[in-house]
Design a protein that fits this description.
The protein is α/β, with parallel strands linked by helices. The protein has a single domain, classed as Rossmann fold, CATH 3.40.50.2020. The protein has 3 helices and 9 strands. The strands form 2 sheets. The protein has a 6-stranded mixed beta sheet, with helices on both faces. Strand 5, helix 3 and strand 6 form a beta-alpha-beta unit. Helix 1 crosses helix 2.
């Protein structure tokens, strides 16, 4: 069992930011159909909250990619576990990620979806940890910038636990 070191972002802070991000996305894709691609499993809660605040014709699909497995550190090798069910050619696509850390997964996914000939491709992340970057990737819509701490909650797990926390906390790794 992990020891929660403290709450970084409260439920209220997260929900306020989600609404703000939804309005930015809505403005970017005004009057157009939007295909939202959520990255499983971490972004499922964020995607659900985000799309409820976007007043556009929204289609939703999910992909599952892995560079972590059951480890606490990225292997550096990205694998597609579940691909899209829908065709994104000539579509406006918004990739929704819970957190961008090394950037390897989102960079891989961005190139993968560009190859599928999207009309417009943008990235939205709730959390960004730029200190951990291993490649040059930047989200178009970012909620919060965080220090390089191990975090859990609001969909983000540690070995599949803690996703159900309504807030985001850092883990006390001194134990």
């Amino acid at each position: 069992m992990l020891e929660i070191g403290g709450i970084l972002l409260t439920e209220e802070q997260i929900q306020e930011k989600v609404k703000e991000l939804a309005k930015q996305v809505e403005k970017e894709f005004a009057g157009e159909e939007l295909y939202v691609v959520g990255i499983l499993k971490g972004a499922c809660i964020f995607v659900s909250d985000l799309i409820r605040h976007i007043d556009l014709d929204v289609k939703i699909d999910f992909m599952s990619l892995s560079s972590y497995g059951m480890s606490l550190e990225s292997s550096g090798v990205v694998k597609i576990i579940k691909d899209l069910d829908m065709d994104v050619e000539d579509k406006n696509v918004l990739i929704v990620e819970d957190i961008i850390d090394t950037g390897l997964t989102i960079d891989y996914l961005k190139n993968y979806l560009y190859a599928r000939k999207c009309k417009k491709l943008k990235i939205c992340t709730l959390l960004d940890k730029p200190e951990g970057r291993k490649c040059d990737v930047k989200a178009d819509f970012t909620g919060f910038h965080l220090p390089d701490e191990f975090i859990i909650g609001y969909g983000i797990d540690c070995q599949e636990s803690y996703r159900n926390l309504p807030y985001i906390a850092f883990v006390n790794q001194d134990k």
